[in-house]
């Protein structure tokens, strides 16, 4: 009989693991909490904003963030085949080589740059299209010109070894349509005899018997049902995977006992070390019309990497640029041609020092997760993000935007002086959708998973997703999550030999 595996989560990592195990002859059941990706907004890059708060979004929120003006931050996460790669801007960033070498130095043996670089190349040359071969819209071309006027260099390939500079985004698109790992890896084998895809099924917990994972429990109460397997792979993301472990009795003993959850293994770091990239908006209205989003054209096409201090070894900021005013919770301020004419330079922090946690409020699926990013708790994060905001203000005031487009800063606006930007950052920062760290891998006793992504103390159970990152990467986490999926699948196959 072929070896059976349940993979939980049809997102970036889970889809890759599924394909590799199916190809190897495993009997695979892929479980996804959401439904199929039938919403047309998923496939048209111009409509990605429609997916927030939609049925395909877990629509999670943090607890009030003490250092971010007491706000509860919205954390969009994909609840659909494709996972968060069905909702995001499809930006593909290998990140800095030093990120992965840092993982290895911290105890994640085998995860250094020399090991992961060939995996990036294989992904990009195999099933997943990664391209910057698309025309920039006029406003995006002018943003690039303004950044060069500000003193940044044009970087033609930020995935070529140097991140610094202003660049056109490399994205996972084909013919103006989104391509994610669900589409590229799983859909072509969806009818394989050794694959079953179970949708609209939320995993409550892992079934552990005599120290070994033997399946997963779907739902609860009268709708509960069990799926048995030889192995279980959690790929539910940095918020989903630790929540499943905690409901399974794998986590901090005191927290579990308080909630009446039987302790299967005391693992204090499950849900700990949560961190995320942050953005803060700098919004401009324009005299000249930018125009509405066009079908097949993403509203973000450029970004930049920049060091807020000269002594940094790698960039600590990554602003992302939108061809629309990203008002969010801000009051729209109409320009000459109305509130739709403008653009946003979203200042970005990509090396956060703050660390938060994820905990349960109860043992049931309906009990809300207590997600605390500890956003901006560390003053170094505030300083870096504020520096990025100030840079964005300067870029927007350069001739390529201020003169050619009549760009006028709507937010923070002239009423916010440069010395008061730290307060602006605390009042407006939002997630960059890159949570990591809650199932950290390493070689120490506190690590949740070992470098082969096996949950410590539980046989037959792995976590293969962004939650295992010891520290967040210098850039978008989707490409690193794909690498984690490829290497994780390889580790499953090697350990079965």
UniProtKB/TrEMBL annotation:
PROSITE patterns: GMC_OXRED_2
Family to which the UniProt record says this protein belongs: Belongs to the GMC oxidoreductase family.
Pfam families referenced in this protein's UniProt entry, alphabetically: GMC_oxred_C (PF05199), GMC_oxred_N (PF00732)
InterPro entries: FAD/NAD-bd_sf, GMC_OxRdtase, GMC_OxRdtase_N, GMC_OxRtase_C
Cofactor: FAD
Keywords assigned: FAD, Flavoprotein
KW Flavoprotein (keyword) present: yes
Domain Glucose-methanol-choline oxidoreductase N-terminal: 237-251
SUPFAM superfamilies xref list: FAD-linked reductases, C-terminal domain, FAD/NAD(P)-binding domain
Protein's name according to its UniProt entry: GMC family oxidoreductase
């Amino acid at each position: 009989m072929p070896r059976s595996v349940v993979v939980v989560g049809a997102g970036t990592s889970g889809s890759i693991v599924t394909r590799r195990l199916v190809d190897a002859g495993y009997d695979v059941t892929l479980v996804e909490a959401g439904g199929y990706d039938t919403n047309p907004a998923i496939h048209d890059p111009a409509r990605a904003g429609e997916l927030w708060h939609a049925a395909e979004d877990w629509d999670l929120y943090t607890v009030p963030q003490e250092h971010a003006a007491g706000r509860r931050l919205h954390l969009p996460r994909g609840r659909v085949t494709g996972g968060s790669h069905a909702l995001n801007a499809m930006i593909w960033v290998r990140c800095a080589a030093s990120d992965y070498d840092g993982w290895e130095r911290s105890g994640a043996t085998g995860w250094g740059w020399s090991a992961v670089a060939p995996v990036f190349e294989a992904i990009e040359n195999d099933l997943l299209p990664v391209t910057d071969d698309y025309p920039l819209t006029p406003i995006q071309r002018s943003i690039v010109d303004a950044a060069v006027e500000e003193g940044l260099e044009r970087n033609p390939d930020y995935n070529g070894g140097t991140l610094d500079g202003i660049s056109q985004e490399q994205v996972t698109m084909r013919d103006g349509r989104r391509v994610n790992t669900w589409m590229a890896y799983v859909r072509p084998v969806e009818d394989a005899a050794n694959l079953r895809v179970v949708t609209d099924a939320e995993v409550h917990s892992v079934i552990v018997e005599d120290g070994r994972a033997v399946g997963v429990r779907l739902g609860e109460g009268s709708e509960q049902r069990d799926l048995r397997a030889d192995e279980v792979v959690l790929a539910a993301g940095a918020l989903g995977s630790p929540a499943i472990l905690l409901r399974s009795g794998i986590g901090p003993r005191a927290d579990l006992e308080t909630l009446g959850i039987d302790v299967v293994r005391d693992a204090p770091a499950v849900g700990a070390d949560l961190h995320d990239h942050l953005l803060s908006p700098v919004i401009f209205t324009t005299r000249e019309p930018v125009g509405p989003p066009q079908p097949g054209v993403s509203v973000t096409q450029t970004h930049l990497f920049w060091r807020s201090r000269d002594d940094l070894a790698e960039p600590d900021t990554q602003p992302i640029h939108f061809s629309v005013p990203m008002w969010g919770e801000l009051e729209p301020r109409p320009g000459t041609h109305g509130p739709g004419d403008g653009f946003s330079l979203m200042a970005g922090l990509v090396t956060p020092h703050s660390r938060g946690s994820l905990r349960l409020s109860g043992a049931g699926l309906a009990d809300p997760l207590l997600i605390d990013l500890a956003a901006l708790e560390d003053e170094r994060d505030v300083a870096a993000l504020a520096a990025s905001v100030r840079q964005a203000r300067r870029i927007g005031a350069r001739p390529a935007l201020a003169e050619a487009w009549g760009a006028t800063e709507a937010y923070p606006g002239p009423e916010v002086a440069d010395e008061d930007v730290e307060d602006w950052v605390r009042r407006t920062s939002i997630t960059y959708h890159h949570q990591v760290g809650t199932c950290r891998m390493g070689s120490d006793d506190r690590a949740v998973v070992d470098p082969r992504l096996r949950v410590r103390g539980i046989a037959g159970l792995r976590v293969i997703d962004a939650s295992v990152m010891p520290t967040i990467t210098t850039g978008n986490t989707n490409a690193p999550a794909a690498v984690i999926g490829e290497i994780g699948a390889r580790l499953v196959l090697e350990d079965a030999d």
